[in-house]
Amino acid sequence: xxxxxxxxxxxxxxxxxxxxxxxxxxxxxxxxxxxxxxxxxxxxxxxxxxxxxxxxxxxxxxxxxxxxxxxxxxxxxxxxxxxxxxxxxxxxxxxxxxxxxxxxxxxxxxxxxxxxxxxxxxxxxxxxxxxxxxxxxx
Amino acid sequence: xxxxxxxxxxxxxxxxxxxxxxxxxxxxxxxxxxxxxxxxxxxxxxxxxxxxxxxxxxxxxxxxxxxxxxxxxxxxxxxxxxxxxxxxxxxxxxxxxxxxxxxxxxxxxxxxxxxxxxxxxxxxxxxxxxxxxxxxxxxxxxxxxxxxxxxxxxxxxxxxxxxxxxxxxxxxxxxxxxxxxxxxxxxxxxxxxxxxxxxxxxxxxxxxxxxxxxxxxxxxxxxxxxxxxxxxxxxxxxxxxxxxxxxxxxxxxxxxxxxxxxxxxxxxxxxxxxxxxxxxxxxxxxxxxxxxxxxxxxxxxxxxxxxxxxxxxxxxxxxxxxxxxxxxxxxxxxxxxxxxxxxxxxxxxxxxxxxxxxxxxxxxxxxxxxxxxxxxxxxxxxxxxxxxxxxxxxxx
Lengths: 138, 396
Known about the structure:
The complex is a heterodimer. Chain A is built from six helices and three strands. By secondary structure, chain A is α+β, with helices and mostly antiparallel strands. Chain A is globular and about 45 Å long. At the A-B interface, α1, β2, β3 and α2 of A face α11 and α15 of B.
């Protein structure tokens, strides 16, 4: 498995690992059967993602894409976070092996799942804003 | 703790040993003759090949005329299985028996034959990774062409009851092939005494180079030719012989089978120390029977973490290991071997195989036992699965 230096860096020194006790939105995506689970915690203030943390069960690429996704949305507006694509995560990591691209989709969906939870907590229907959350196929 | 480099993946491949390399070198630049040539340079190459053939034969209790050099273990498996299928189809025998946890070189070959009119029975293994000979006996039919069962499993190292299986096949008049790629050099093998009809072996698992293997075919079994062409390998596998590789295999197998009992006596306690040390971690389990296993093999599932991450972290600490995780196989499914012994997907994802050899030291073992718990703790601390396990929640 040929990982880029950036993937290995984010795997060995993942950014924003952990939990947020009083998170405003929590999203979890994936399942242990497939071998990847990502859990994303968001702190949101005035439409700005002021803090983000993650926990991931999965391969090197799963950890690296989670880490990179948190970096890409930290300090950004919700609108910007909603625009985060898996492609952007892959590019920021200088590429991923083809069999690992699904990890970047998980990272993208974990962010959306957390935002979806945020809206639900606000009493707002997340579906028109965030769209459907895509669970990985088994 | 000073960082070490520990190669603990000898079941994947091994380094070419000094003695093997030394024996090969003359056949690159000086003894480069084509073994089919009439002059001395050619005759010398031929002699070197035949000496190597004798060594391979002696190592497994065969006759030199029963040894055919191939390019690898997979080729040997393919030849034995497809060749026997070809041979027996004419006699109306189109049924093959194998096990669910064979190497893919066997499983993908039998799957191929299923597409070509063969019926295949896949014998299950028990939760210790062992096959019951009685199951094979019960599966044999009038039209059974071949039984092919691996000698030792490549992932969990379990050694199968080959003698009993061979005896059943002999009694029933069915040909018996065994993929012994992982067993040669670690288990004493005597094909004639054991009643084995065909056996595959590979060079690079026993310190020869990659790209050389052999198939033992008992005298009297006329397997169809694998490669048509010249008269090499008694016309059965044409193509100019890879003399240095063949010579290397001869040297390697001679060394590997020389002091098996002494080697095993040394390696087994160190391996057991590793097993016991790692099993001290909570939520871990040893995969495969503890005693009926290759002396250098250990395969442990560590719940709450995923195998590839574990391997990457071990690599950062200088330890080379392997895993049955899906992520290392390029598919979403974890190892078919671990699933076959009843592991749940999520547990199989977090497995680790170490395969050590007699070059390992006590200090190496201590180092591994220091690194593994640290790495596991780190990965568990960032695992949502572990978090749920600790809260007593289901995580499926």
